[in-house]
Amino acid sequence: MLRNIRTDTKQISVPVSQAEFPEPFPIGLEYSAPARGHWTIAHVALSLPEAHIIYVCPQGCLRGVVLTAAELNVSQRFSTIEVGEENVLEGDMEDQVIDGVGHILEELPYTPPAVLVFTSCIHQFLGIDLNMIYSTLRQQHPGIQFTDCYMNPIMRKGNWNPDQKMRRQLFTLLKPAPLDQHSVNIVGNDFPLDRTSDLYRLLNDNHYTVREVATSRNYAEYQKMATSAVAITTRYPAEAAGKLLQTKYGQKYLHLPFSYDYAEIIANLQKLSAELGITYQPDPNAITATDQALAAAQQVIGDTPIAIDYTFSTKALGLARLLLDRGFNVTDVYVDEFDKEDQADLAALKASAPNLTLHPTIDVGMRIAPRQSSEKLLALGQKAAYFNGSPYFVNIVEGAGWYGFDGIQRMAKLMIEAYNEPKDIESVIQVKGLGWGCGCI
Amino acid sequence: MHDASGYAGIYTTHDEPRWYEMDSLIFVSGLTETEAILGDDEKFINDTVNAAKRLQPNFIALTGSPIPMVIGTDFPALAREIELATGIMTFGFDTTGMNSYISGVGLAFAELAKRVCQEPTTKSDQLAINLLGVTPLDFSINDTVASMEKVLQDQGLKIQSNWAMGGSFADIKTASAAQVNLVVSAGGLPAAKILQKRFGIPYVIGTPYGAAFTTKIVNAIKQAAATGENQLVCPPQGNAKTVIVGESVNRLSLANAIYDATGEAATVLCPVDSAPELLTDGCISAVDEDELKPYFAEATTIIADPLYQPICPDTARFIPVPHEGFSGRVYHGSMPNLVTGFENLLMKINNETKKG
Predict the structure, then answer these.
(1) Beta strand B317-320 with A209-211: parallel, antiparallel or unpaired?
(2) Which value does ipTM take for this structure?
(3) Position B195 in a domain
(4) Which domain covers residue B85, as residue numbers?
(5) Between the N and C ends of chain B, which has fewer C-beta atoms within 10 Å?
(6) Out of A63, A67, A158, whose CB is closest to B33?
(7) Considering the domain boundaries, does residue B28 fall inside one?
(8) Does A383 touch chain B (CB under 8 A)?
(9) Which residues contact A186 (CB under 8 A, 6 or more apart)?
(10) Is residue B83 part of a domain?
(11) For position B151, which CATH number holds?
(12) Residue A29 to residue B30, Cβ atoms within 8 A
């Protein structure tokens, strides 16, 4: 029998100097910590104003998304079609979707402008004809826009995992329109870009309209995203969305990754300026203010150990690198996998902080690992707070709406607040979809 | 759980409300498309063996989900391989993700009854019972279970074991020392039948809600102990004007407790799996919106989880009774303890009736 050598040496910590790319830990059975602040594909879908969401899945899969909608108090925008064993055996799953969606639309007290129909792993494995389903739905309900969405976690190791695909599909409903050279889309983020962020201010100061799903108050405003001449992504999982806007709608796509690296922040803004033909000079005052904010935080926090987890920011390693560089005592980073944008930070940390300890969050050993710290510890992220039992934590997921120097300054302020004001870990981190909102509510 | 990981968020958020404070060893396999297409069970087996060696659990349970069902994963066979490799008792359940929690709970407790319960050395001197079907999905974490045990203990009964909230694995091993099993949710019924077959222990079906109905249950337990005959103390009480939605044993018991206290009958609509013998004109299987709506249209009072309210007609009074198995943690703040809070529910029903 072949031995699966990946499961031979489980461990729950490794110095960064020994971490391999892209998986620093072997991945076996997986534990799920009770930190629920991160968004799911249901949260992303429900952020589209006025759209109705229909999930077609087996009962076991439906429960989570049904209750997500209930917790957000948007059950009226959410319907389900339950796939049973009889559907699998009888092979009527195409009809089930078409008839089920039709029935739901008949029963709805209003006609939604758009319906997001989610199929699941089982449709994929049974070779269901999705093209026929969606084309039939479009013929039968010409006044409604339909798009295909996927709750198929079995594809999470694929080129586009369900999260990436969801962020992309959110833009498939746009109707092609003439481009407005003074409109820019920010796509694929959970949260609206902070109005004080360097990126927003650069666009706003140059009289560009910034369009985002998160700030669209209704479906018509969302549709105006089709008119933007430029689409910007700031996070790696959003790249598929950006590429779609380029290929399908002719928008110029720019990936300007969120970063804690001053030079990269400046380079991103310069790249955008060059593309738009506007002037940008790095603001020395912003840089000074950022240095001062970090110094002020360091003065308060001192040598207190700091733990960071990947839910806090897509650039957990970049954050560790910045903080270590500024004299903070970052001791632990919780991360299960790296993506391509982590490579430079990983290499730098191997050289500059070889003893920085990495931990997985999903390894079975984390279920029983001691969840307390012997001394006061500042956690950046819910999972870091949970695994260290630290009430001193910054309660942010996915980097909030931060960007640029302004984002770092905001973070530094929250670090001081979190250091001084303990939170109730259990009640805070178990709230699902932290900060979820929809412009239509 | 042999699953791609989609289920992880469900049980950690809604199905296991003790997830934060209790180190339950529940994990997902993270099944990938490639493993499913290639029928690669080796990774699942190796990962499970590896985890078991590190964690040394009392037993291992493998459960299925939709894709393992589609590709025909043989869970009992995988369980045998893992048991041979680890020396740890291992169960394999062909669950599919297409049935309600009642069916899975029933399978799990049945295996405990078959393989974990040991031959009794002696029977308990005191009249002792096992509580079968005690899950957080049925009774939440609002002290209902402790209250249920207390009202039974107050009537002179000993709780031999509780399947399975708050008790221990050792308690379940010695469950055969009890004289009677009390089935408090439908998930406990398969185990009751196995324990009867293996050890001749009779069972009583009913959940102790309300003083009068609890006394009935206790009397039935005594009768079962004396005669060896099973007792169903929560017969259907058909009345289309009042409907109660929920799990069959639990809600039939509530209907009977209300009847014993007020003389008013109610029909139970059961949207989850149930034992066929419990389904009658007074306890009807009605799973989805289309099946439930005709009954709601006839009703003047509907007692159900608040998630049902949007599909209830304005012509009926709606009395919300949150149930973990339906709405998870969504209404934890108002989750009633129906053992100690039965009178409050009655008052609510009476007040609503007067308002109506």
Answers:
(1) unpaired
(2) 0.92
(3) yes
(4) 8-98
(5) C
(6) A158
(7) yes
(8) no
(9) A192, A193, A199, A210, A211, A212, A232, A233, A234
(10) yes
(11) 3.40.50.1980
(12) yes
